Amino acid sequence: LLPLVIVALVIGYVDRENQYVSSEVKFATAISSIIPLSYYIGMGIASIAAQSNFAVGAVVNATFGSITELTFYITALLRGHWVANPCLQEVVKAALTGTLLGCILFIPGISMIIGGLKHSEQRFNSRSAGVSSALLFISVGGVFAPTLFSKAYGNLVCDACTNTTGGNSTSNGSGLFVCHNCHYDLVSRAQISL
């Protein structure tokens, strides 16, 4: 699969307008090219961790273990900034939330369920379980704290809302509204309450 990396780079930079290759083929090629790159990154991290002490190995693993995701996030944020599209920021937020919850909840949960199918009794390190549960509480708080803070102390402000039937936000038409550039304004609510 390693030649797919070169193919993905070539068709990504040469055919920007999708004249020769469709977007679906480009996406499939890029996803397939991540597989060998992730393998070599993992092997490099394991090699560095094996030749160094535990602390250095943990730092290298935490830093470069998710370099493919970090590259995706940085690219999406830069692209969203260049084209002034805040939707890509929401994609990055959702991906970070999914990664966080998946790594802390889903993977250990599936491991425990599969282990429970084979073994009627499982033993866990109490310190590791304590650290994992503390990280779980911190991550859940970190995921939900900004949303709760915005809901409790902010007003939703949008630049422009249009009705799906074609009217603006002042029309009395019934239908769904499409709003652009929405954010929570914390300052105006604080000034009103004073």
Tell me, briefly, the overall form. extended
Bin the helical content.
over 70%
- Looking at the chains present, what oligomeric state does this protein adopt? single chain
* Number of β-strand runs: 4
Instruction: Return residue spans where pLDDT drops below 50 for at least 5 consecutive residues.
Output: 189-194
Q: What is the count of helical runs?
A: 7
Main pleated sheet: 2 strands, antiparallel
Secondary-structure element series: HHHHHHEEEEH
Question: Would you tell me the structural class of the helices and strands?
Answer: mainly alpha
Give a nutshell description of this structure.
The chain is mainly α and 194 residues long.
Structural topology:
Blueprint: H1 3-14, H2 23-51, H3 54-64, H4 67-82, H5 87-118, H6 126-153, E1 155-157, E2 160-163, E3 177-180, E4 183-185, H7 186-193
Antiparallel strand pairs: 1-4, 2-3
Protein name: Sodium/calcium exchanger membrane region domain-containing protein
Transmembrane segments: 25-42, 54-74, 94-117, 129-149
Subcellular location: Endomembrane system
How would you characterize the overall build of this protein?
The structure is a single chain. This protein is mainly alpha-helical and 194 residues long. Helices cover 70% and strands 7% of the residues. It has seven helices and four strands. The strands form two sheets. The protein has a two-stranded antiparallel ribbon. Strands 2-3 form a two-stranded antiparallel ribbon. The longest helix is centred in the middle third of the chain and has 32 residues, at 87-118. The radius of gyration is 23 Å and the shape is extended. The protein starts with a helix and ends with a helix.
